[in-house]
Amino acid sequence: MSHIWPTAHTVTTYYKVEVNTDKVKPDKQHRDYRWINRMEDGLHPYLVEMIENSGLFRE
User: Fold this and answer.
1) Is 23 inside any structural domain?
2) Taking phi first (over 0 means left), then psi (-120 to 50 degrees means alpha), and beta for anything else, what does residue 3 get?
3) Domain-located, residue 1
4) N- to C-terminal Cα distance for the chain?
5) Which residues of 11-40 are buried (b: 16+ CB within 10 A; e: fewer)?
6) What's residue 54's pLDDT?
7) Which of 19, 22, 23, 1 is CA-nearest to residue 10?
8) Are 51 and 40 in contact (CB under 8 A)?
9) What is the residue range of 40's domain?
10) Cα(46)–Cα(32) distance, integer angstroms
């Protein structure tokens, strides 16, 4: 995903991963995280766009 702003250009890489356990935990580089199983109100617009593009919660 690429975003062009008036003062910056950002490139974001994201992955859709399926796991078979609930013991997955990000390391200390990731201080804010949570598991979700549906689109929630209040998610960051970039995250919403990534989820929509991945088709993660399509019915």
Assistant:
1) yes
2) beta
3) no
4) 23
5) eeeeeeeeeeeeeeeeeeeeeeeeeeeeee
6) 83
7) 1
8) no
9) 16-59
10) 15
